[in-house]
């Protein structure tokens, strides 16, 4: 993909990669002209609490269980489809319940910036 101009990607066509939340499909990591990545993530019930020291993430809930929530620094926040959550660096977080989310990660996702207590 060239590093300029518009791009159209079917996120469901990207390979799934295991992550602490479940399975992520990450787009735009190869674009030098875009400072972040976009992830379509299927979160399962075994999501692990983690944090990032560099990344800011925005979760947009697309689908979720009726009792789904996001845990931020130990506090549970109920979510429903179309909920958006801003997660700054240093925030310990995990999703609770099954859900599908769109994640915008800035700067570009780097697996070395996933930390666990």
Keywords, separated by commas or semicolons:
Jelly Rolls; 117 residues; mainly beta; 42% strand
Please give the CATH architecture of the domain at 38-113.
Answer: Sandwich
In CATH, the topology of the domain at 38-113 is named Jelly Rolls
What portion of residues is helical? Answer: under 10%
Strand content: 35-45%
Q: How large, in whole angstroms, is the Cα Rg?
A: 14 Å
Please tally the β strands and state the result.
Answer: 9
Biggest sheet record: 6 strands, antiparallel
Shape: globular
Distance between the termini: 37 Å
The SSE string, one letter per element, is EEEEEEEEE
* Annotated CATH homologous superfamily of the domain at 38-113: Jelly Rolls
The low-confidence runs, each spanning 5 or more residues with pLDDT under 50, are: none
Structural class: mainly beta
Largest beta sheet: strand ordering? 1-2-3-9-4-7
Tally of alpha and pi helices: 0
- CATH uppermost class of the domain at 38-113: Mainly Beta
Let me know the average pLDDT: 95
Please give a structural write-up:
The structure is a single chain. It contains no helices and nine strands. It has a six-stranded antiparallel sheet, with no helix packed on it. A three-stranded antiparallel sheet has the order 6-5-8, with no helix packed on it. It has a domain at about 40-115: Sandwich (Jelly Rolls). β5 and β6 (about 75-80) form a beta hairpin. The chain is mainly beta and about 120 residues long. The model has no long low-confidence stretch (mean pLDDT about 95).
């Amino acid at each position: 993909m060239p590093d300029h101009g518009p791009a159209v990607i079917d996120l469901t066509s990207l390979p799934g990669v295991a992550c602490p939340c479940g399975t992520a499909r990450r787009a735009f990591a190869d674009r030098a002209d875009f400072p972040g990545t976009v992830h379509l993530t299927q979160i399962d019930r075994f999501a692990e609490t983690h944090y990032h020291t560099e990344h800011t993430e925005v979760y947009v809930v697309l689908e979720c269980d009726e009792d789904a929530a996001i845990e931020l620094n130990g506090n549970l926040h109920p979510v429903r489809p179309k909920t958006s959550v801003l997660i700054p660096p240093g925030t310990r977080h995990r999703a609770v319940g099954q859900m599908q989310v769109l994640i915008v990660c800035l700067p570009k996702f780097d697996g070395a910036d996933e930390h666990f207590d």
